[in-house]
Amino acid sequence: MNTFAFLLNQSVNALSQAALLFFLGVGLTLIFGIMRIVNFAHGTIFMLGAFVGFSVVHWTGTFWAALVLAPLIVGLFGAAFEIGILRRLYGREAHAFLMVTFGLALVVGDVVRLIWGPDALQVPRPAALSGVVFVLDEPFPVYRLFLACAGIVMAGALWLALERTRLGLLIRATSQNAEMVHALGVDVKLIRSAVFGIGCGLAALGGVLAAPLVTASHGMAFAAVIDAFVIVIIGGMGSFLGSLIGALLVAFVQVFGNYYFPDLALAFMYLIMMLVLTVRPGGLLGKEA
Amino acid sequence: MPVASIAGLAVLALLVAAPFGLPVFAMTLLNELVILGLFAMSLDLMVGYTRLVSFGHAAAYGIGAYASGYILLHTELPLPFAVALAAAITGIIAIGVGWLCTMATGVSFSMLTLAFAQLCYAIAFKWTSVTGGSDGLAGIPRRAGPFGIEALTTKTGFYYFALACLVGAFLLCRALVASPFGAVLRGIRENEPKAVALGYNTRAYKIAVVAIAYALGGLAGALYAPFAGFANTELLFWLLSGQVLIMVIIGGSGTLVGPILGATFFMTLEHQLSSYTEAWALFFGLVFIAFVLFAPQGIWGLATEWLSRGKAPAKEVRHG
User: Fold this and answer.
1) pTM
2) Of A110, A113, A237, the CB nearest to B107
3) Is residue B317 scored above 80 in pLDDT?
4) How is chain A split into domains, by residue range?
5) How close does chain B come to A79, measured CA to CA in Å?
């Protein structure tokens, strides 16, 4: 294999990984930006997405339906949780949210185990995406290519939604000054519910997309939440662009680190995180120091 | 003598008498509880008294456990010295951790402590020659004490040793938070800029409290390794950091006793639920959520409120 083909191959691989991490991280950062809470249940929501996706594929027989329905279902669940529980806690100290979302992670994790059983579930790749393509004579799975494209498209769409729509405007305004937005007659409560729902829905989308790659399993929640934290911390809590950069950085470090320094790859990620935080305590694009 | 001191002495008497009345399996649980209580209390110095909310306290526990495990496996050092040395090592490492992490404040501080703990986790996973990799260190002996004190090798003797560590650490922490040093810590908790304006080098105080808290957390971990006979990467995993933070909060932060109660509650509930139902994590999670919604002051806060009911108007309980 020539070097260029190898690098290209690994880069697309990293891009597909970055797409999954981005869906995970951007939801967490949106939630933090609006509510100033660290959602410990984010990895579990990601896992819930994968399992709900499995069932939707099972019922409808098509992966594409899961891609739409699972995030919707999980997003509505997230919004309901915000309305039922989190809403009572605004104004309380940060660790109240830590405990509530930790509790949510335990509850959802167990409910998933009760409904879907303790074993990992295989979600088949849709037929159209199950083959390989040849990139410079090297085989490459179509599904990973699809993931990379989906990540780019969704990142663009989300950016447009945040910058060009009314809801996006309100979200950005609320993250800057919720009281002022409230004073202007906007129902901030509704925006918070919506953002928590959207954040959970995006994590679920990541879960559905990850499922054909790694199977839907209970272990994915733990790995996911810590990855999401790292991304958001590196990029800066609450920054959309930061979560994109964080996801790319972490994905490239994971993919190339695993290849060149398999023993150090895991440590690399956290070293970068510490380095970023000591130089810029608020993260690369974060406002808070 | 105030009610609290009498109650405290009564509990201590019960703990000392426990080996004479409790079955072996209950003693094992109680011993683990003593160790976890010490671990939770050490975090309270940071969370409750200085508002340094660490997401990575498992680092202290894990470093202490690996250090004492390594020392006990590879040297002839008697148990108490090995444990003390492991705690000291943790405290010394923590000076560096504190220096690094206190560059940031608030959520960033939490995240830096998490990053350090995860880094330790990654190192423990890969540095197989020292840490045993994913297998961890196994077969850690409970070696006898100095001058041929054999008692420490027995379960009961080790229990008393752990209990002595907990009581000693509690007295130390209580003296610490009552001292001028503790007053500065509370000043940092309430209003750091003000403490700076009063001329205190708050960064130095924060590094000091991180080092002390980690050393005591390391002491707990150093006890756990010979207690369980092993040390593995789970002792460094972020899940443990989350759990110990919840023990502190659920018990009542900033009270020292509260976190010990929190650890007791946490462990008892986990043990009881898991023996009754498969779905224990479900109820466990619901209890956390209910606690936040209905008892924000924590177990200790609830208890003191209940005790002072009908007397003077209930004192505002701080949960910082």
Assistant:
1) 0.84
2) A237
3) no
4) 12-218
5) 17
